[in-house]
Structure formats: C-alpha cells, structure tokens
Write a structure and sequence with these properties.
Helices cover 38% and strands 17% of the residues. With 81 residues, it is of the alpha+beta class. The chain has one domain. The mean pLDDT is 83.
Length: 81
C-alpha cells in the first residue's frame, strides 16, 4: 500500500489448502516495499511450517512434472510399431 510518509507497506493475504482451507493469514510489513518482495516470502514460510512442507516446495513444479509425464505416456502409446 502506498505510504506518503515513507516506503510502501508490503502486505499479502492467503489461505490454504485451496480445496479445503484450514488456515488464513494476512501479513503486513510497514515500509516493507511490495508484498511479493517482503510479505509473500513470510507467508510461504508460515504455510511450509503449518503443512509440514519441504522448504522451497512448489506444487506448480510438481504439477508440471506430472503433466509432462502424462504427455510422454500418451506420446509413447500413440507411436506406430
């Protein structure tokens, strides 16, 4: 959020997990800059702790790997002998 008295305030709001939320958080860092730079990494650490995730775990990366494996399987099944 813009702050006429100094740097912007960084804030980030999130909930999880997506399908059946059990936690909601709001992070505000006064004069912390943009939310994605300052507040979102803190939210990530909270979610990692709350859900016992490996640090740096990315569901999007895991989903991309799964999709790639499925495409490879389809391509292998569509090859003519």
């Amino acid at each position: 959020a813009e702050n006429p008295h100094g740097d912007d305030h960084g804030w980030f709001v999130a909930y999880g997990p997506y399908d059946n939320p059990t936690i909601a958080i709001a992070i505000i860092i006064e004069q912390g800059g943009y939310g994605s730079d300052a507040a979102a990494p803190i939210a990530r650490k909270i979610f990692e702790t709350a859900f016992n995730l490996k640090p740096g775990f990315s569901p999007a990366d895991e989903l991309a790997k799964e999709i790639a494996a499925q495409k490879a399987a389809v391509n292998n099944n569509n090859k003519t002998p």
